[in-house]
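Interim report, section 4.2 (structural modelling).
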Amino acid sequence: MNKPFATVLDSATSLKNKTGSWRTMRPEYVTMLPPCNATCPAGENIQQWLSLAQEGKFREAWEVMVKDNPFPATMGRVCYHTCERVCNRDQFDGAVNINLIERSIGDIAIANGWQFESVPETKNKKILIIGGGPSGLTAAYFLRKLGYGVAIYESHIKLGGMMRYGVPRYRLPGDVMDSEIRRIIDMGVSVVCNRMVSDIKTEARDFDAVYIAIGAYQAIKASLNVQEGSNTIDAVELLRKLEDYPSSLPTLGKKVIVYGGGNTAIDAARTVLRLGAESVKIVYRRTINNLSAHDTEIHEALEEGIEILCLRTINTVEKGKVLLDIMNYDEENDILSKTEQTDSLPADSVIFAVGQSLDKEILKGTKEISISEHGVIEIDRNMMTGAEGIFAGGDAIMGKRTVTHAIGAGKKAAKCIDAYLQGLEPSVNIKNPAATFKRLNTAYFPQNPRVNVSRLGDISFEEKNISYFDQEIVDEASRCFSCGNCFHCDNCYGYCPDNAIIKYPDGSLEINLDYCKGCGMCVAECPCGSMKMTLDE
Amino acid sequence: MLYQLEGSHAIARTVALCRPGVVCAYPISPQTHILEGLEELIRGKKLENCEYLNVESEMGALSVAIGGEAAGVRSYTATSSQGLLYMIEAVYNASGLELPIVMTLGNRALGAPINIWNDHSDAMSARDAGWIMFFAETNQEAADLHILAFKVAEKVHCPVIVNVDGFILTHAYDRVDIPSQDKVDDFLPPYAPKASLDVNHPVAIGTMVPPEYFMEVRHLAHRKQEDSLAVIECTAHAFEKKFGRNSGGLLRRYGSPNADTVIVAMGSVAGTIKDAVDELNQEGGQFEELSIICYRPFPAEALRNSLKNAKRIIVVEKSLAVGIGGILSREVELTMKGCDVDVITVVAGLGGRNITKSMLKECFNKKSHEKITFLGLRNDIIGKQYVPINGDCC
Amino acid sequence: MSHLTIGNRLEKNVTAQSMYDRSNSLTSGHRACQGCGEALAARCILDAAYIATDGKVAVINATGCLEVFSCVYPENSWQIPWLHSLFGNAPAVATGVAAAFKRQGKENVRVIAQGGDGALADIGMGCLSGMFDRNDDVLCVCYDNQAYMNTGVQRSGATPAFSRTATTLPTGDYLGNDVQTGKNLPKIAMAHGIPYVATASVSNIHDLEKKVAKAIHLKGARYLHVHVPCPLGWGYPTSETIKVARLAVQCGLFPLFEAERGKVIKSTPINAPLKVEEYLKGQRRFAHLFGKNASSDALITLQNIADDNIREYALVGDPNE
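Predicted structure of the assembly:
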């Protein structure tokens, strides 16, 4: 029998009522740039590899890391992780421990012997890289991936540059660094160590392009009196000798003064402590807030008993002591001035760590390569020096001198060299707008403070094993807010009162504008800010 | 088989033979004995496969029946008077949803003043609710009408109220033939709903209907009721054939055919009227009694045919529409529009007031009537109590 | 990732609402206002019931927004058997349906009666109480938006103290709805000693679905009271329905708990309760409690209600949790 008219209806007949016509605003999915990614000097897609780490997909996470940076285990130790400083979770319950996750996954890669793909030399072009530090090695890695032949000339007896000669072993164990360097070399990079380059132009003849990544090894000399009989050494030299010729280390005595306020000063001070000094004091001219060394490094140095004397400059180094001028620092106007007061400290030796500069010796024969007023190689926006086909990067150019920046420079150099060799302009990455904290809906993230693992153990050159276990990696990575990047939480789908989000079997989502009334609940409840409302046309 | 039974119990036993699956009970005089009777039959396993629910109100009672029926199960309840008013929203709802519920209305006056005795005021309050309404004359008919009610209701998908005069029938003992289960089963097949709550074929029942379609819904309801007249007649014939007696149908005539005066009434009062008519006819009068058994749908055509030769129609009705007068008499008058006939309104038996044969005879014999006659009205009281209201506005 | 979201890509601890092939018991094209909490809750609850019963569920709907926006000829948004009878009789109709299913041997088809707070706390309370009293095999769901929304936001028996409605407009000394108000329907239900009573919030779909899945299979009368904010009636932006619901829970004004046979057996803890102001201030219906004519007494009263809930339901610091 027929159903009663009108009072009884078949199911789902309302589908023909397209409520989308009510709408004045529409939601849309957006991808925003998470602050971690935005700030990473090496340009890592941190959010993406954290997302894979959450899923326990460590291999895939590692593959994402090494798309931008071939040194995860190394970076996971020595990077100053600006990412964590800007991490949106820092405003909630503490930044995600990105650095330690990177390190842990880097270690898993080493333990499992994961290798880079060996790419045949399809490009039929060769690039010379002068300097086998982080920047040179990174450039070599990317150029090899692109199919170029690569040769590295390294002046030291080992590859690694400042990773080896600037970072003490308690921060970066040699085997970790060696494994990651080896992995690059195994891609088919020809390496010549102990090879000083004196004339770049001559060397460049056999190559299609050159990348100068020679770093900045020359210690800057502080202008002060060093009297006869006093015991002084540059921090760079100390660290290099310790690495290559430990037996030739000078005797430093019991009371050691380190002069400088950068990371090298801290590294030198902590190294000296490990070499047996009884008292290590850092003398710095400005206030503790102005130390350029990384906070964690300072913190750890203080924990180890190193004293930092601020607002002091060394006037004279005498045998057994240093004479200090007490300084006044006008922080607001950045004016440093001497006061009338002086001070002195006992000192068996003094280590200078007031900065490093480019060794200009090898550039002498190449006039086209100009040196800026800051004493670094001048390059154009595509990293090329004044000499055609000769590029430069790393500590040898203007910029922050960290391993991470050097890696970023190496990556960019490879891209620029590739473009140059193809007669193209390097591609420009268009960045998404920033995923700010206020875009997030933190109601979906219960308080779950970060898990720190203490770096402090015995004061020795041994690294204390502090990598995460697998589950700890997953747990800590799961703290990531996934800022501005959909992590498929299905809130938009589940909370839409109008079923106007379609979810496909593969998990992908689409807004069904036929029914979306534009209430904005999906956008409001998106935990990670990867949706926004826009005016409907 | 014949039994000496109280009217309520006769109804209960007959309803049980109709095998309802859901029976809802809420007490109100004078229908209560029906539901008590059913309770006893169900607990005593005389009626099996039936859910008996003691609900919290008449609203609940009819609502439970609505639910039962909408889920595809024959459902029954009974009420009276205030109870009908209390459930009136659901009364309209059940017919609008085309749910063939059968409900007994033990007819009783409406308060205030509260009065538990019989008249037809309650039935009249629901006369436009879209239900089919039967009026029983005797206990036998009261019982039989329930079988007919289920049959008709389920055929046309319309709920039915069986009106049974409170106390006069519900509480009166009389001999009643209770048919066999086989015969009833044969007459009344299992209920096949028009639309029900079915997980395999999900539908929405009880939609909101906007102005563009509402008139049509109501029109169709009206047409359905009109069409039901033939079904009701036909079903009564089938009943007679099956059970060997005339019960139900649209009308029943008694007395001199083609009499000058026809007395129209509904329910048990027809018995007294028939006695009065018999005596009047023996005394040389020309009187006929006509019972309207099916009040809704109103059997206008059958009535007009039956009354076409009458010179005078006296409508004896147990209800009063305050402010206008008779209810049934108005409807009869409208039906007879264009015929040369007087329609006289006699309001009788309100609130259980006795209607005696002699009162009726006297009334029927009168040559002329007031516009409206209140049978047995105590004019001594009215004379004292009626104070005309001053026509001023202040 | 978070365990509080509707789903997650690892498909661990996900809700039925995250399933790509969820039943959508209430499908698109319905005419609920933008951001309607009730429409969302209805779909979540009925989908959960649908899954738990393998599609064997029938719904009786009281008159109200939910009925009006979902089923206007010729457009029906329901994909399950659904019946609307009257404003005040949904629990009784559901009783009849359950009785009929029992007669038909179809007790596996579970019956849900649903309606708003007006339908259940006020006009239908008799039928609701009767259904509880008889312990009929019905799950009754109350979508509590705390006023008569369908008729234009008038006060209901469940309207909270100091709330502005169209019939409790704050003027002068009058601060909106009286203090001794807001019928506690869950407690009324519990007083009947029925097998199961629970409260839930549209801001916690995990909890909501678990309660439905549990309630739907229990025999006898069950009651689920769901807090569903109404952007239009409460006066907040349409995008904030979930936020408002969440704040109500987090400040203690809407405690989430389960009770069996009249006894609370479990409550959902709120770790750091918010002040009730956090919940109230974003809603126009409480706007008169803030600003230049602010009433600190009223806020204290409301805070006391929340604090009482926190104590009564042990929402904070229960060592057993």
